[in-house]
């Protein structure tokens, strides 16, 4: 028997151990499946090995719900977990630890440093996977992968060489995001943009022919030393006369041209900007269009180079001050004004990013992008919701070559080798001959992640059962914010490396935000720890509160009270199951198939079975359509508001000690069937709770996690309509009783006037659920009923006869008086709010408070008028 109280903290760990120790997360063996079974494969987006569970990871429950459903629905299901080595993040963690002892990675050397990182990984790198277990992720942990394990590393080398040999990977010079602190290129998504208070310097650039000047506005005066042009919008009439002529670059006296370009914003500053191709992404592209030369005045350590002339050797900060002073002394500084703008910083160390032209390794993205576009346009890959197709195509249509080299030590070392003769060789294994050395750089973490859907399944091994059976994978579930950085790259490399799509569906979830819609962050103080929430309310309640609010592609505003509310729901499921098990001691022996024929059942039994069958159909359909919130809310409404609030109350009639044994046996069958089927439907959403209950039932299907998904059965439309009418009658009578303060224990008589007459079953339900005494049915009102309250439901006039102590006249007078007082107050408020002078001068919160009170008062008057009508 279930414990009296539901305490998730005492059962969740033991239930997870039950699943994992019995290897229930692994795909069922072929001989265990009945007949031909479809496969279903979902590869977990790998969380960073440095990470700890946060609310974004909590959205993994969407993946787990899909997996649990397909496992129960008879699919040979694989949910494959893994973690990402997170190159720059992991290296930073270990470097910070070393720094506490006054040691740098360079002191240790590459080999010893990597040894330290691997030691850290073995000790701390499993934190996130342990925490995912707390959330209930039903992954096959025996197949867990890591982006730097031997097999993944082999796959990375194979993919690199394959692309290199097809000239899809090359080494060349291009402008990149450079972090002076991390001393590495970083990806676009690793650049955070922060609003900063700075200045806008207006600098005079004299025309070479002395016909005047152009004033250039810039936020980075120190980089002007690397200017190779001045740009204006090609349609800006203010500067049309200067296009094609030269200006003299202040402080260096170099002649540089004025060019007209569509990319210049005429509204920024003076409408004229400097062109510094080596240190600005837009300028780099502009220089290509106008064939302007490059001049590097900042080195990789953020120090001014010899090209900066007198400012060489200064830091950026020192050079900025010195350049401003020199401009002022030379009469070139027109003005300096405060300016707020967005600055790119490294997401790890928060150092300002310096765009640099550097020799790096790149993937030619355009040829790969075409295949990825074709896969979505043909429908072979379906993005959900479909509106993200537009973003997907926009990014791929405008894709730039992808910089894949990083100046780190932790990661996949680029499989390219050089010798003293200047030869270059890309190879999956080191050259056998001596005199070769490997490239020092490692690959962008996203490169190995782009191979994740197939490298995890065994690619590039030719004879691999998992790859043959589970690839292409069924669905990728991930947040929309990495559609470009990850999803599109998987599509590009998946098609190129395997000739197949990597997944059939891409389900994009939104971001978890706080209840005000703000991004969760430590700086705002609104970041929540899922483990603390689980500790307080249980994993099931957290899962349900997330999925009940999730909608494909839309952000989710989360609040603790939502989880608290679903903790109550979990408690309701527990108590309902406990009640059924107490009333049905032989529940394990009772058939768990739908009772047949339906004609032998009472109207309420036909209703609850029909509603259950409807919910089976709608839940199945909603999960298949990825409308998980609809599925979760539908189950919540059915179990709490129909099964518990209505049917269990009716079932108590047949379960009483003096009930007919045959009726009692039938009731036990109905309750058992509805409870067991409901547990199956709820399992993907509330896995711990439902499995714990299931283990107490002693069902012939030993584990709920591998039990069969319910099939839809017959639905009696007549019973649904009839019981809906009973619910309306009961609800209205309950409202009458509550409105006029009738005690729940008081058995009042009721007259029901109208046709068709209610059946014996219906009268019994009405009497028990509405706590009534006698019920009289009449075709027409034969005489007036003294001291009664009247209401109308459907075609029926309901007269509820009140007790002798109910003074109808006094109650009517009280209500009419209250209506008068509230109406007068309402009118005064309305007059006050119609006064424009008051509304404009009063504090906003005062006006809003009065508006709210006006609405509330209006609603109170409406309800009192309804009561007066009942008394009439």
3D architecture notes:
By secondary structure, the chain is α/β, with parallel strands linked by helices. It contains 28 helices and 29 strands. A four-stranded antiparallel beta sheet has the order 6-5-14-16. A four-stranded mixed beta sheet has the order 10-11-9-12, covered by helices on one side. Strand 22 (473-479), helix 16 and strand 23 (503-509) form a beta-alpha-beta unit. Helix 18 (539-547) crosses helix 19. It starts with 7 loop residues before the first helix and ends with a helix. The mean pLDDT is 91.
Q: What kind of assembly state do the chains in view correspond to?
A: single chain
Calculate the terminal CA-CA distance, rounded to whole Å. Answer: 53 Å
As a percent range, the share of strand residues is 15-25%
- Strands of the widest sheet, in order across it, are 6-5-14-16
Helix content: 40-55%
Briefly note the structural class of the backbone: alpha/beta
Shape summary: globular
Distinct helical segment count? 28
Give the uncertain stretches in residue-range form: none
**Rounded average pLDDT:** 91
Rounded to the nearest angstrom, the radius of gyration is 36 Å
Q: Biggest sheet, open or closed, and with what strands and sense?
A: 4 strands, antiparallel
**Total number of β-strand segments?**
29
Write the layout of secondary structure elements.
Elements: H1 8-21, E1 39-43, H2 55-58, H3 61-72, E2 76-80, E3 82-83, H4 87-100, H5 105-108, H6 110-124, H7 127-135, E4 145-146, H8 150-165, E5 169-179, E6 184-185, E7 191-206, E8 213-218, E9 229-232, E10 246-248, E11 255-260, E12 272-275, H9 281-290, H10 316-330, E13 333-346, E14 354-363, H11 365-377, E15 382-384, H12 388-397, E16 402-403, E17 405-406, E18 416-419, E19 424-426, E20 436-438, E21 442-443, H13 445-450, H14 452-455, H15 465-470, E22 473-479, H16 483-498, E23 503-509, E24 512-513, H17 530-537, H18 539-547, E25 556-557, H19 560-583, H20 603-624, H21 628-654, H22 661-682, H23 687-697, H24 717-739, E26 748-753, H25 760-769, E27 772-778, E28 788-793, E29 796-801, H26 808-833, H27 836-841, H28 844-871
Parallel strand pairs: 1-2, 3-4, 9-11, 15-23, 22-23, 24-25, 26-27
Antiparallel strand pairs: 5-6, 5-14, 7-8, 7-13, 9-12, 10-11, 14-16, 17-21, 18-19, 18-20, 26-29, 28-29
